[in-house]
Amino acid sequence: VGIAGVDKSVRESAIAMGMTGRQVLFQVELPLAIPSITAGIRIATVTTIGTATIASAIGGGGLGVFIFRGIATVDMTAVLAGALPAALMAVVADEGLGWLERKLSPARS
Description:
Elements (H helix, E strand, L loop, with lengths): L7 H9 L4 H33 L10 H9 L3 H29 L5
């Protein structure tokens, strides 16, 4: 939802206090929208890693090659050679972006 999800009354209050449009954006709207923006980036990143892994099904290459080759030859070592790094990338990306999300989010009292 991002900036559109910021309550209109908060924006109106900032304007009523004499803030300019730029001040409202950078001091009110963006800080309140950061959690949903970073959550969207986090979800998109993890989804993209998973999608890129299965891209080898249509000749895209990548770690999915090991997975599909292992499935075709019933070689679990090959499956794990593709699946474990892909899963590790997804977990690291999720945790890293989760940490960033917590750092960028305004303090909650």
